[in-house]
Prior knowledge:
The complex is a heterodimer of chains A (570) and B (161). With 570 residues, chain A is of the alpha+beta class.
Amino acid sequence: MSTQATTETKPTPPPIETVKIKVDGREFDVPKMTPDWQGKLQPTTMLQACQVAGIDVPHYCYHPKLPIAGNCRMCLVEFGTPAMGPDRKPVLNPDGTPKIIKSVLPYEPSSPRGAIACASPISPGMELYPSSEATKQMREGILESLLINHPLDCPICDQAGECKLQEYSVDYGKSASRFVEEKVHKPKQVDLGPRIMLDDERCILCTRCIRFTKDIVGDDKLGIVNRGSYNTIASYPGTKFENNYTLNTVDICPVGALTSKDFRFKMRVWFLKETKSLCTSCGTGCNTIIGSRENVMYRYEPRENDAVNSTWMCDYGRLNYKWINREDRLTQVQGSKLKVQTWANAIQYISEILLRAAAGSVAIVASARQTNEELYLLKKLAAKFNAITDSVPRVGEGDRLLLDPDRNPNSTGSRLIGIAPEKMGSSLPKIADGIRGGSIKTLIVFGEDVTKHGITAELLSQLEHLIVSDILPSATTAAAHYFLPGCAHVEKRGSFVNVKGRVQRFMQALQPKGDARPEWEFLHELVINVTGQNGFVSIEGLFNEMAKEVPAFHGVTWAGLGDAGVTVQI
Amino acid sequence: MSFTVPAALEAELNELVTHYPEKRSASLMFLHAIQEHFGYISKEATEWIADKLELQPINVYELVTFYPMFRQEPAGKYQIKVCRTLSCALAGSGKLHKHFCEKFALDPKAHGVQTSKDGKFSVEFVECLASCGTGPVMMCNEDFYEAVSHGKADEIVGKCK
């Protein structure tokens, strides 16, 4: 088998040691050890054991990807442990079952004493009662105390609809507050950093944001100042919370305390349609969820994928979506040599040009921001004319967390498919020379302004045919003889390969603007017209055909990519 | 504003760090020493300590704001500390505190330490001064006074030159 693709390369796991416990009276074999936030094996906690049993334990401060703090107390669970005799043997009930001693308050034995499930390890024979009346009462008490000083300004709060206070209030809240005293007032609209606004009155002091920036980012900027009911989250006076990952604190903030300056007051979250997508701002390919409504994109949020981005994404990538809604998007078929500006006409003209083109007279510059499917179709065209092809490298500064120096989302795909040479951009001077020398008469450009990369406007004017597809205007689109409006990634489906060889697919969130069409659709028509080869009319079929043809993708299927993608050998 | 710690104090602090397994553990002792020497803990002092203990300023600032006995502003020449724990509260420490505040044109309802305009007196409530049988009790700098009536209070203030 030449199948190299695997979901994850893991050695055969050793047999897992389990512990027998009971959850709500049902017996479960739970792994003795479970990976913690760093992936290190630690004794399984009550909360994790309940997850194994399929029971959610409500929580605020606990986050699977952060160190445990145990300060919100919401995950309190009633529990009991097997009684031990003086001989260190379990004491049995008359019916032969082990006698369980429920945990109670030492000074008030009639009251159950819960344990915080997030930080308490399980032990053999333990019984957890996450659905008991006592557990419910503990949660009601905790929630009531968390809401004592909370402003209850849900109608104007951005978190409304995705707020854990709201969610747990439905389960454990009271319909009216018993608190008649004056609430403590704390700072509001605190400008914590360039992208973050803080409302200290809404904060429940779970410290998720503090732990995130300290332990994940390594930028120990936030802390809790003052004391008691005046406790507030703050950065050191005169400093800003401004690392490249600050917006993740908005995601993990379980309440409406931290809000994104970009998103706040823009849209009620329950109106947003969620689409699984990818970030295109660098070669890491962070998994994202696009929030859109009525064909307008409002936000990116990171989507969990432990093989790529855990549950995080950088602020740079997250806010790099404004160009999608830009007013000057090119949405019409046009071009100086196109008389009738329709798709049918343009495809027919271009097909005729390409059918007449001699081998070696065509060059293709295809962006490494394009999908594998589009690059594959362009490669098929290139093969027909023995055309020189290349992509344009984009390099920036990387960091140790997620941001990769390669600012193209699909450089790896471009290389694997054979559009870009090993050193991306090294063929661009050859293309420029070819045009200058007259051997290259037709240039096809997808998604790049080649005038900025050595193929000057003057050179472009020497071409017989300049065929361009893009979504935003540039000197190259202005010079185009034939221009075909394409789509932003949010307006089509496709796949990218990240810098580590993870093949990932993304879904369509928005409808293309104006006459624009997904590039793979019209490229598919051109390939049929020019090469005579038939293809597939769906992205699924196209991907699967590519997987057969491109060696690196052997054994991968569109369906097999799933939501998390597949790692291939690069 | 530049902040300089005298060499003798710095040597003392350096020695202090060696008492602890982690540098961070010396934070509180540093804060005490700095306040004792300078009278209060300025922003510059906070940053100096953070730098010295390889911490972020916020880590030190959390402590400064947590403990009411750490001052971020210079205190008055005479610091009047009125006990407000139960016995003294029953014996009239509230009225005593109010008496001082009115004497120095301060707000008796304000939270925390207040200093008179001329910078001579600071007034604040503190917790138990451990003489519950003789309340209300108070301290003026390092001197301790028991059963402080308003008349006795005026006498104490009178002695402050």
